[in-house]
Amino acid sequence: QVQLMESGGDSVQAGGSLTLSCVASGFNFGDYCMGWFRQPPGKGREGVAKINTAINTTFYADSVEGRFTILRGIRKNTIDLQMNNLSPEDTAMYYCAAVRYCPLGLKPGDFDYWGQGTQVTVSS
After folding, report:
1. pLDDT of res. 108
2. Of the candidates 103, 107, 100, which has an alpha carbon nearest to the alpha carbon of residue 27?
3. What is the pLDDT of residues 60-94, one digit of tens each?
4. Distance (Å, whole) CA 19 – CA 5
5. Residues 84, 45, 61, 52, Cα dihedral to 10°
6. Contact 54, 30 (CB under 8 A)
7. Reduced to 3 states, what is the DSSP secondary structure of residue 26?
8. What CA–CA distance (Å, rounded) separates 35 from 102?
9. Residues 6 or more apart from 19 whose CB is under 8 A from it?
10. In which residue ranges of the chain is pLDDT below 70?
11. Phi and psi dihedrals of 90, rounded to 5?
């Protein structure tokens, strides 16, 4: 049974940093594409970043390029999202997701498995 569990969400001031973590279980972690998505208040879910865990290639949404980094965590079967220079526009529920093969884009509909989310709130 595939399970994804996010952690690390918090309330921070603009300009601050946070690291989110996603622990995966129930599948061969190294064979899957892992992604981070977010859903701002009153808006739809949007892609943030993805990583092909087999070859360690990454892709970022334009809105976070240069500020966020997706990488394999120190703990086994973990994906981290390092977020720097946060702004109020980054306020959202952040979700971890997984799919067997990395899609070309970063659309929520392309991912099959989802965590419950972790809240990030950035105040000005």
Report:
1. 96
2. 100
3. 999 999 999 999 988 889 999 999 999 999 999 99
4. 14
5. 100
6. yes
7. coil
8. 9
9. 8, 80, 81, 82, 83
10. none
11. -85, -5
